[in-house]
Amino acid sequence: MQDQMVNLSLIPNEEFYQEFERGFNVVNGDLTSATYRALVNFTESVNYPRHRWFYYREGFSPELVNALIKEFDVPEDGLICDPFCGAGTTLSVAHERNLRSIGFEVNPFSAFVGQVKTRDYSEKELMLLEQVITELVTNEFDYEVALPENDYLTKIFGQEMLFELLRIKEFIIQIDDAKVRDLIFLSWLNSLEPVAKYRKAGNGLKIKKKANKNSALSPRDQILHQMNSTLEMIKVDLASTSSFRTEPIIYEESAMDMHQFLQGEQLDAVIFSPPYANCFDYTKIYYMELWMGDFIKTRSDQKDVRMKSVRSHVHATWPTRYENYYLSELHDVLLPAVRSQKLWTNRIPDMLKGYFEDMNVVLNNIYKALRPGGSCAIVVSNSSYGGIIIPTDVILAASAKNIGFTVKEIEVERLIITSSQQYKVTEGLRRFLRESTVKIQKPYET
Ligand SMILES: C[S@@+](CC[C@H](N)C(=O)[O-])C[C@H]1O[C@@H](n2cnc3c(N)ncnc32)[C@H](O)[C@@H]1O
Q1: Which of 48, 101, 110, 311 to mutate to test the pocket of ligand 1 (most atoms within 8 A of CB)?
Q2: Which of 309, 321, 383 to mutate to test the pocket of ligand 1 (most atoms within 8 A of CB)?
Q3: pTM given for the model
Q4: Tens of pLDDT along 72-114?
Q5: Which residues contact 270 (CB under 8 A, 6 or more apart)?
C-alpha cells in the first residue's frame, strides 16, 4: 500500500496543523516517541475474563472503558452506548458493572462475538456445556459434508483441514441448546486462524511462513486442541463471574441508522472507536470467520456488509450520501492536497470525504441520543496519505463542536508509525500522527 509520488509543495505545513488544533485542549500532545500506551489496543484484553474469548485486533482494552465510565461519572443505573461495538469491549464492561448498554455493529461475526461474551449462563447451561464438550472430544465426526463453492477457503485451509472443520461444524449445528451451541461455535471460530495456512496481516490475510504449532497432529486433533483451550478459558471465566446481570442489546445495524433504534436523550455515555480512515476493510480481515461461520454465504452478502460500513476503505462504491457536510480545513486544504498527490489508488480522496461525512452523521445521532450533560469518548487514529497527515482527531472534534458539543479535550495516547516512506515525508509533523481519545460532552442547556 505504498504511495507512489509526493508533491511537496501542497503539503500543509506545521502551522496549519497547529492552528487547526489551537482551539482544542490537546493533552499530552508533546510525545516525541511512540509510547505504545496499552489501553487503546486489545493486547491487554487477553488478561480479562470473557474479553479473552476472541482476540479482536481492532478492539480497545476494558481498562480504558472502566476509566472512562469513572471519569464520566456514569450513574449506577446508567445507560451506555457503543455505536461501533466490534467484539463488544464497551458492552462487556457495562455487563460486568451491571450497567445497561446498547451496541451497533455491521459485521455479523463481530456482533456474534459480542453477544456470546455478554450473555448470562445458568448452572444448567454450564452442566450442558460440560456434557457437550465430552461428546465433542469423543466424536468421530463421520458426517457427509460438501466443500463450499468459495475456492479461496480451500486455499486458506487446505482440503483435508477444510473437510475436518466442516464436519466438526456439522456436529456443532446439531447441538440443541442455542446458548451452549454458540459457546462451542465461538471456540470453533477461534480455532480457524491457528489451523489455517493463512494469518491475519494488515488489511487481509497472508500466507504463513512457519508451520502451525501442532501441525504434527491430525487435522481433527489440531482443531479440537484449539477449541479446547478456548473452552477451558470459557469454563473458568463463567465459573468466576456471577450471572443475572443486565445483558446488552446489540443491533446488527449501522451507527448511521442508530436514531431509528433509540429514543432521544436517554444515553448517559457513549464510548467507542470507529474504523480508522486507513483503508482497512473488516470483511477482508475477518474473511475466514465470516465465510466459514456462514455469517456471509455469497459475494452479495459480503458486499451488503461492506456497503453498511462507514466509508473507511476503498473496496466498495457507495452512492453519494450526506454531502451537506463542510469543514473548511478538510474541504479547502486537506482534501485538495491529497487529490494533488499520486497515490496507490485515486479513490482515497473520495474515501476520506465520505468517511468524515459518515462520521458527522454518527456524531449528530449521538448528540440527539445523549441526555444533556452526557459524555462521549472517541478513540481514533490519524492517518497519512502522500505525506499529508489527516488529523482525524481534530476533524472529529471540530465536527462535534459545530454540532453543539463541548469539546473537553483531545488526549493523545500514543504516536503511530506509518510506512518508512510516509515516515520520511511526514518528518517534523510526526507528533500529529497519533492515536487519541476525543472527549466531548452535550451541554446541560441546549
Ligand atoms: C475499531 S472497531 C471497534 C472495536 C471495539 N471497540 C472492540 O473493542 O471490540 C470498529 C468496528 O466498527 C464496525 N463498523 C464499521 N462500520 C460500521 C457502521 N456503519 N456501523 C456500526 N459498526 C460499524 C466494524 O465492523 C468494526 O467492528
Answers
A1: 110
A2: 309
A3: 0.94
A4: 999 999 999 999 999 999 999 999 999 999 999 999 999 999 9
A5: 80, 81, 82, 83, 366, 369, 370, 374, 375, 376, 377
